[in-house]
Amino acid sequence: VVSDAAADDLGLRVTPFELAYDLSREVVVEVDEEPFDPEAEAERAARILTIRSFSNGYWTTEWTVFSEPLFTTVPRPERLQWWREHFAAMDDKRRVKDKSGYPEERYIQLPGWLQLLLDVPWQGRLLEQAAGLGNLKAHALAGRPLVTTLTAEERQTLDQRLTSPLLIQNRYGNWELSSPDTYLRATFGLLDPEEARQITAQVPAGALAETYDSVSALVGLILPTPEERVAFARRTSAKLLDWDEAVPWLIGTGSHGLDLLLSWISTRGKGEADAMARQVAAVAHGPGMTWFFLDMLATKAAPVAEEWLSSHVGAALAANLSPARAEALAPTLRRLPVAELRALAPQATPSTRKVIEGILAEADAPELPAETTWWVDAAATVPTGVEVPIEAAGLPPLVVEGHRLSVAQVGEVLRALSTEQAHPLVAAVRQRAEVTSRDRFAVAVFRAWIASGAAAKQSWCLTGAGWLGDSQFVAELTPLIRQWPGQSQHQRAVKGLTALRNVATDAALQAISGIAAKVKFAALKKRAGEAMDEIAAQRGFSRDELEDRILADGGLDERGTRIFSYGSRRFLAFVAPDGKIAARLLDVQDRPTGKVLTSLPAPNKSDDQEVAKTAKAAFAAMKKDLTALVKVQTSRFEQAMIQDRRWDPADHARFIAPHPVLRRLLAGVIWAIRDGDGTLVATARIDEDATLIDASDDPITVPEGGSIGIVHRLDLTDEQASRWGEVLADYELTTPFKQLDRPTFTLPTSQGEKLELQGIPEGKIPAAKLIGAFTKHGWQRGDAYDSGVYCIHYLPVAAVGVTVVARYDGMWMGSLAEQEDQQLHEVYIVEGIQDGEALGWGDSWQTEKLTKVPWRRLPAGVASEVVATIQQLSS
Question: Boundaries of each DUF4132 domain copy (predicted)?
Answer without folding.
Answer: 594-779
